Amino acid sequence: MLKIGITGGIGVGKTIISRMFALLGVPIYDSDARAKWVMRHDEGLQQELIDAYGVEAFTGEGELNRTFLAKIVFNNPQRLQQLNALVHPHVRNDFFKWVAMHADKPYVIKEAALMYESEAWKQIDKMIAVFAPLDVRIKRLLHRDKHRTEADISAIIERQLSEEEKMARADHVIFNDDQQLVIPQVLALHDHFLSLTSE
Questions:
Q1: What residue ranges carry the coiled-coil annotation (predicted)?
Q2: 81-121: per-residue pLDDT in tens?
Q3: Does the pLDDT value for residue 75 go beyond 80?
Q4: Residues annotated as binding site?
């Protein structure tokens, strides 16, 4: 079974691309959603987070206090790196358990914004980078995330690995730039991955 990674910066449309693959019957591992789940359900990780950030890391109901954590790590690269270093190994373990559950499939997809930064790409067979120009990404994000300003979005983008580097390191690129049709690109890659698994 092939493990395919999908990555790209905020606003490029990773989730839309993943949904297209899902419609073709491909299991999708949403790293962001699973990370939130793992932080709520993995007692070992919960204790590590409390040790690092204090009991305020969780609410009285046992939910992750995302607002509290965001304030700590948002403008502090060292604290953000610390948070990622705690969370990513647990998410990696969760991913491999999930992969085992889909062993009957020709290939699965892991969607993650920080695929290279977290070194998760090392557990992946083929990488897809989704690309959209900066102006298109900002326009999409201002429409999607009403609470964010253009300055907020630019700050997030600046902290992420450049799109040029992601594309250079990827095996395949999907252009989601509002100029090229996306569905034919997805279908071509789907056929390609199926051909690799049938060799």
A1: none
A2: 888 889 989 999 999 999 999 999 999 999 998 899 888 89
A3: no
A4: 11-16
Rg of the chain in Å (alpha carbons): 18
- Its sign, for the CA torsion 109, 115, 116, 122, is negative
Instruction: For the beta carbon of residue 56, count every other beta carbon within 10 angstroms.
Output: 11
| Amino acid residing at 63 | E
22, 103 Cβ separation under 8 angstroms: no
- Tell me: the pLDDT tens digits for 139-170? 988 888 888 888 888 888 887 888 899 999 99
Residue 62: both structure tokens together: 């046992």
DSSP conformation class of 161: P
User: Binding site membership for ATP: which residues?
Assistant: 11-16
In order, the DSSP letters of 76-98 are -HHHHHHHHHHHHHHHHHHHHHH
Place of tokens 């897809």: 128
User: Per DSSP, which regions of the chain are E strands?
Assistant: 2-7, 28-30, 107-111, 126-131, 172-175
Does pLDDT of 199 surpass 70?
no
Q: What is the pLDDT of residues 3-15, one digit of tens each?
A: 999 999 889 999 9
Among left, alpha and beta (phi > 0; psi -120 to 50; other), residue 110 is beta
